[in-house]
Write a structure and sequence with these properties.
267 residues, globular, single chain, 9 helices, alpha/beta, Rossmann fold, 7 strands
Length: 267
């Protein structure tokens, strides 16, 4: 099936991490030009881009998503390079490996996570929608895809600030799906909700066999996701062909995870 990515311009934030890099690779392989964002990992991201077969269609942009002006500047730079932006994948986020109950959690940690995961998503979406308002409807319809987490649905003891930041993206998605159509009648906003996924950010935790065993006890598919699993789900929802009539939807990539134990340790 033609995904409709050929000649589309996509902006992917948090592209220096495992999921973000997989999204860039998937979009580029489908024919899109991609603006791959990093904050502090720009040099490493450029080095990786140089090893790909799509280097001529991938531009690295850097900036702090916590800063609205930086998000606007990134959007302007992408438009200068590619002419416009058709799709935005809001993936930049942080998660703290050190689990702490909220009453013991430092204030700075709470603020940092909310600033990046929630406000960063808001400022990125704002910059993208401002560009869409200036440039007009995208061919096939513009799209925003937010990257949430199953922590936002089930909660995550020891990471309440992270769970809260991801849960809030659902409200953002449901609001923006009604706003984007005022700028682009075919515009869509959706959310991909990964569960436990093997990435550099989760590596330390998922290197613990006991943690993995506890995690997969809640999944019918007793396995962890890979970044490619998440990237393919993002590509589906961002496709102007495959998902032309999907908006305001959450696609969970978590092996059927439920908020209950499905397997005992001896199964």
């Amino acid at each position: 099936m033609d995904t409709g990515f050929a000649d589309r311009i996509a902006w992917v934030t948090g592209a220096s991490g495992g999921i973000g890099r997989a999204i860039v690779e998937t979009f580029a392989a489908e024919g899109a030009a991609v603006a791959a964002h990093a904050h502090t990992g720009g040099d490493a991201l450029r080095d990786w881009v140089g090893t790909t077969t799509w280097a001529d269609r991938i531009a690295v942009v850097t900036g702090d998503v916590r800063d609205p002006a930086a998000c606007d500047a990134m959007a302007d730079g992408i438009r200068d390079r590619f002419g416009r932006i058709d799709a935005c994948v809001i993936n930049a986020g942080i998660w703290c490996n050190d689990a702490l109950p909220l009453h013991e959690m430092p204030v700075d940690r709470v603020r940092d996570v909310i600033d990046v995961n929630l406000l960063g998503a808001i400022w990125t979406a704002r910059a993208f929608l401002r560009a869409l308002a200036a440039d007009g409807p995208a061919p096939g319809g513009a799209s925003v895809t937010l990257i949430g987490s199953t922590a936002g649905r089930f909660g995550e003891a020891g990471n309440a600030e992270y769970a809260a930041s991801k849960a809030a993206l659902v409200g953002l998605m449901r609001s923006l799906k009604n706003e984007i159509v005022r700028l682009d009648p075919a515009g869509r906003v959706n959310l991909v909700e990964p569960g436990w996924t093997r990435t550099p950010m989760t590596e330390a935790t998922l290197d613990d066999p006991d943690h993995v065993r506890r995690a997969v006890r809640t999944m019918p598919l007793r396995q962890l996701a890979t970044p490619d699993d998440v990237a393919r789900a993002v590509a589906l929802l961002a496709s102007p062909v495959a998902a032309r009539h999907l908006s305001g939807q959450t696609l969970t990539v978590a092996g059927g995870m439920e908020g209950r134990v499905l397997w005992d340790d001896e199964s």
